[in-house]
Amino acid sequence: MATDRFQSRRNRLVRKLRKTNADVMLVTYEPNVTYLTGFSGDSSYLLLAKDLAVMVSDSRYTTQIQEECPGLEARIRKTAETILDTALKLARKQKIKKLAVEADTLAVSLWQRLGEQIPLQPTSGLVEELRMVKDADEIAEIRRAIDQAERGFGFLQAGLQDTMTELNVAHDLEHAMRRFGAEKAAFEIIAAVGDRAALPHARPGRRPVSSAEFLLIDWGAHSLGGYKSDLTRMLVTGKILPKLKKLYEVVLKAQEAGIAAIGPGVASRDVDRAARSVIERAGYGKQFGHGLGHGFGLEIHEHPRLSPVTKTRLSPGMVITIEPGIYLPGWGGIRIEDDVLVTRDGCEVLTSLPKQFADSVLR
Amino acid sequence: MATDRFQSRRNRLVRKLRKTNADVMLVTYEPNVTYLTGFSGDSSYLLLAKDLAVMVSDSRYTTQIQEECPGLEARIRKTAETILDTALKLARKQKIKKLAVEADTLAVSLWQRLGEQIPLQPTSGLVEELRMVKDADEIAEIRRAIDQAERGFGFLQAGLQDTMTELNVAHDLEHAMRRFGAEKAAFEIIAAVGDRAALPHARPGRRPVSSAEFLLIDWGAHSLGGYKSDLTRMLVTGKILPKLKKLYEVVLKAQEAGIAAIGPGVASRDVDRAARSVIERAGYGKQFGHGLGHGFGLEIHEHPRLSPVTKTRLSPGMVITIEPGIYLPGWGGIRIEDDVLVTRDGCEVLTSLPKQFADSVLR
Q: What is the CATH number of the domain that holds A58?
């Protein structure tokens, strides 16, 4: 991996920093440190200014920082010192007026300790805004995570048995994605049989696949490069329920309408609207209780969010999920989810698993 | 699971709260919410006072809270409201003077928004101090996580092949623990071949087992009940290096000395000393760069810490790791780790995998 891409991300952040009252920023939020440096460990902060980029870490990570962040200056804290002490010392040497910190994730006690020593400028979402628009390396890594998820799903499907429980399905699917190079699952896999699928965040349990006619699987891979994918598919494992088929077609139409609405400059709530109105017209508006989708990348939930109230406009390079659903408590739920890249002239659906109702039916 | 155990934990916290200036506490840190309620989801806060215990959550979790926290009052936020708004409304109804918050984990931006509405009292470690001493249910759950880890390791060992990479080993081990009921690995498993074992936090990579004479595996299970285990064993996969055997015996002696020193009322740094002095006498003091061990439970690192500088004294019910190591950069590292319960008259080693040098040698 080239290092200049991290340099160029840091340069963009430094330019954003100018619009705040601070001249130096202490980046403490782990995914943001990773985004700006390529470092995949934890417990490490990045001190950043116009002509300054120093990683503050501890001796466990000396080698890993050298390997993952060639060319980046690192300051390893002494054992008796906290990472905050070391960062403070460095910051003071810069004779700074104000130190920008990440208020949405920095803990109060660290904020108070820092604030006793140096004037602080709380900031919100500076790095997250950069992360909304993916660069070419990130998109390639997301494609990798999607490939791992899709191949893993194919392998799971090929070996699926009635006697398997939701937990078996979730665990086998993670193991299958790893066969194809994933580091792990992108999040706790949802494998929900029958009425459990009515819970958008069901935890897998001991229920066997055979205990209902269908199951919902919501999964994704976390690539070795740290990027994620996020998909949902239904599997029909028993007799074909007419109600299931009917609802499935509504959700699929809604999803297609949502995807068709995606393009640069489009308001994310209009994409939500395009999909939601299909479900509303079918009479299930109240049974679709969550937003249509969300950005993802180093984290599984990133900006932009797609919901009736969000205000973001889509830009080329954003990667989002489109995942409408209908949930009937006590009966079950249906959700179909794909990953979409916003392009200069519309969008590209990055996921490619078939999703017609007939494709869900297992022989 | 009985619910009264959560009630009794909450009662203990309320008694501790009396010593602060606050009359109500907002518990926001996820493992602490789990400890006090049994709830295993996220994005949920607990508002707690003498005659008040209300879970504040969102509609995804309505059913799960009913299932996991029978009898606990829940307030589900409206879609247009944030969880903080809902918690604030509730808090205000209590006509409180000061609201205690968890300063070590609460984010600055939430702190500031709360502070505009209500006087706040930052607190540190109130719930964590309770969590240091495990109750009978927690110890039973930790025993379960240890059993899953040990059986998984046995299964891995039985199928280990020279061509497997560090990643294969780590992934197969997690999958094996799940066979025996684990939800997942307790943390990112370390499987480090040869000189990679010199990094106390090595990330598994594509190196095959056959590329060196030994590997280090540091792993644990996360039980369905949410508790963890944490072990380290060496496996000799090639010819027996005299240097390895010699260092191994030093580390094992150090570990046995550490375990022998454990008992109620003993200073945790004295346990560290007992083990560390064995390694120092052998001439490798500088090659043992981390603390001797740490508490664990719902999280993999909890108090007490065992190091030359920590001040905690051990009490019955604490569960700690004892994990001395010797690390020689460029050559390799040796670590042996077991889990130990402090009892009224000494300690009980909860882990039972054999650990003589001969036990490490694979046929």
A: 3.40.350.10
Same domain, B145 and B262: yes
B245 and B341 both lie in a single domain: yes
Residues 245-284 of A with CB under 8 A from B: none
CA neighbor of B173 nearest in space, from B162, B160, A62, B163: B160
Residue A128 CA to residue B240 CA, distance in Å, equals 51
| CATH number of B216's domain | 3.90.230.10
Angle, helices A268-281 vs A242-261, to 10°: value is 150
Given a contact cutoff of 8 angstroms between Cβ atoms, the answer to whether B174 and B185 are in contact is yes
Tally of domains in chain A: 2
Residue B18 sits in the same domain as residue B70:
yes
ipTM: 0.91
Q: What is the pLDDT of residues B38-66, one digit of tens each?
A: 999 999 999 999 989 999 998 888 888 99
One domain for residues A263 and A118: no
Cβ A178–B201 below 8 Å, yes or no?
no
Contact state of A63 with B199 under an 8 Å Cβ cutoff:
yes
Q: Which residues of A touch B40 (CB under 8 A)?
A: 203
pTM, 2 dp: 0.94
Residue B283 φ/ψ region, left for φ over 0, alpha for ψ in the -120 to 50 degree band, beta for the rest: left
Do residues B222 and B340 both lie within one domain?
A: yes
> Chain B: residue nearest A309 by CA?
B80
**Angstrom distances, CA of residue A154 to CA of A147, A180, A354:** 11, 11, 11
Strand order in the sheet with A52-57: A73-76, A52-57, A45-49, A24-27, A99-102, A120-123
Same structural domain for residues B166 and B31?
Answer: no
Cis peptide before A304 (omega within 30 of 0): yes
* Chain B neighbors of A309, CB-CB under 8 A: 80
